[in-house]
Every structure is written in structure tokens, then in C-alpha cells.
Amino acid sequence: MQNKYLILSGIILAAILTAAYYFSQEQPEMIRENVTICYYTALSGLITIANEQGFFSQQGLDVTLKKYPIGAKTAFESMFEGECSISTVSETTIVSKDMKDFSIFTTIGTSFNNTKIIARKDRGIREPADLRGKRIAIRKSGSSNYFLHVFLVKNGMSENDITILFKNTEELPEGLVKGDFDAFPTAEPYISRTKKLLGDNGVVFAEPGLIITTFNLVAMNSFIKNQPLVIDRILLGLIQAEEYVKKYPDETIKTLSKQYGIEGSEISAILNDTNLEVSLNQDLLLALEDETRWAINNNQTNRTSVPNYLDLISPDNLEKIKPNSVTVIHKGN
Q1: How many CB atoms lie within 10 A of CB 32?
Q2: pTM for this structure?
């Protein structure tokens, strides 16, 4: 019996010494990777936070962010031109651009109240039905077009009941204040800016849950296949950012305000309507399909049928790292 205890003690001692030797040795340094991400709008907030707070760096990534203004070439298009390996993109742009050979590997921002309509009260507009017969300005393409359509239908109208004027986003606030048109649909920060300019003469119509707006991260299929570790590290950094945003909302607002050149109150308004979370939800698939059907019927896309958008979703990396955040139905379910 004593010999058995001696043998067991010897095995334990040997294991301890082996472990001590292993951890005393210098571990190989993490190989750092350079990644460029094309992005735009404060709905990309998790990317900004992850970079500013050093979360990407902690994951062994040296990330360069390239920001693209609204109305110019999109971050999504820039990825196809080789300007970055990863880009942010809304479901609207995916529907309208009909690009190939890329996949969505995570959603980083979701809003059920992103787009609203702001109107002038002195034009007799107090409730949605009063928009009938009015002049409504809008961008020629974008999610605001889809929102306007669904909003009108919900309130018993169609595009035939209004006059549509196409304008650039930057022209909308001043144009409404000058009275060039009567109302326009858009998202923050333009709603808050215009309301401030109009004062008591402005009225805002919101329909939470009417449409879903998602902001996603995509990469070329070859990149996802050949650089799975980089995708994993990106996701881990974003998850750290997600926790930071929840824990430090005031610091988040300050950081995003500085990075995007937007007042803190406007950033706050955006975040009130947006869930900055790393996920792949079934809502994304439904939003893509619903918006595609509308876009085909209204000549907003070159698509002629609704594709199987599951083919454009790559859930494996996120499902491995944060499995509870993947609810989109896919082959692995």
C-alpha cells in the first residue's frame, strides 16, 4: 500500500514539474495580422469602439479603418475594388447591388426604429394621413424608400397619393426648413437636426417595428475560407466592444461623437434606436427577402427573383465563438 502511495505521489510530482517547466518557457508570440475595414455611419459603432479601446489589438490584429461618407461610393463597393478585406453593409445595399462571391459573417447593429418621417406642421400635417397630396423628398435609393412605401401602405396610401422629389441626404434638412417640400423620411442624426431647426413647427412620425434595418460585416468568400483565424479575432474584438458599450454608455457616446463628428445628443438618439450586438438573427433573412420583393417590384435592383439568402450567410465562425447569438436557420441547425 505504501508503495502505491509513493508511486502516486511521484506521478503527481512529475506532472507538477512538467507543468511548471512548460509555463516557465517563453510562449510563442501571437502572429499579428493586418486588416483593413471599410465602414460608414455610427451604426458601425462596435468597430470604432473595438479599435479605439484596443480590443482588436488584444486579439493580434492591426486594424486600419477607412470611412466612407453617405451618398458617395459605398464601403461595400470599395471592398470589391480591393480597398479593404472586410466592409460594413446594410441589407438595403446587399439587395440593390446584387454582388457575388461574398458572405455576411455577422450583424453588428440592428434597429427596429431607424427610419422616421419629419414634416412641417404649417403645411397642415399633424398625423400620417395628412401626408396625402403633399410633396415628400427622398434619396433616390436607400432604406428610406422602402420605409416610405411600407409606411404609406400601413396608413392607407401609396406613392400615387404623394409627390416624390429626389434629393441628396445633405439637402433634406435645409430644404424642409426653407419649405421646398413638406416632409421627408430619413434616419438619425438628420431627424434630430431637422427637428431642432423647425422647433415647434416640426412633427415626427415613427413606426417602431415596421421595418428592420441591419448593419452587417461582410468579406469575400475566399477571405473567409483562407483567413478563418482573422475572422475569429475580429468577432472576439467586437464581442469585447459589445460588452464595453453595455457597461460604459456615456464613454461610448463620447468616443463615437468624436470619431464621427456628430454631437453627443445625436449619437444618443442613434443608440436609443439601435441594438449594437454581435449576432446573426432570423430577422436579417426576413429583412433581405421582404426588401428584395419590394425592390424588384419598384425597379430598385437588377435582381429578377428573390435569391436564397442563406447562401450569402456564413455562420460558422460566430456559431463557434458565440453560439447563442446565431438564430438564423441554416444547414447546421
Answers
A1: 11
A2: 0.86
On the 0-12 / 13-18 / 19+ scale of CB atoms within 10 A, 270 is buried
List helix spans (H) across the chain.
2-24, 45-52, 55-58, 75-80, 91-97, 143-154, 172-178, 190-198, 221-226, 228-247, 249-260, 264-272, 282-297, 316-321
Grid cell of 170 as nine digits: 445633405
Count of helices and strands (H, E) across the chain: 14, 10
User: Which residues are paired to 184 by β-bridges?
Assistant: 118
CB distance 234 to 86 below 8 Å: yes
Choose which CATH entry (3.40.250.10, 3.40.190.10, 3.30.110.70, 3.40.50.300) describes domain 33-111+212-325: 3.40.190.10
The closest alpha carbon to 150, from 218, 216, 213, 199, belongs to 213
Q: What is the mean pLDDT of residues 33-40?
A: 95
271-304 pLDDT, tens digit per residue, is: 999 999 999 999 999 999 999 999 999 888 888 8
- Homologous superfamily of 115-205: Periplasmic binding protein-like II (3.40.190.10)
pLDDT at 316 over 60: yes
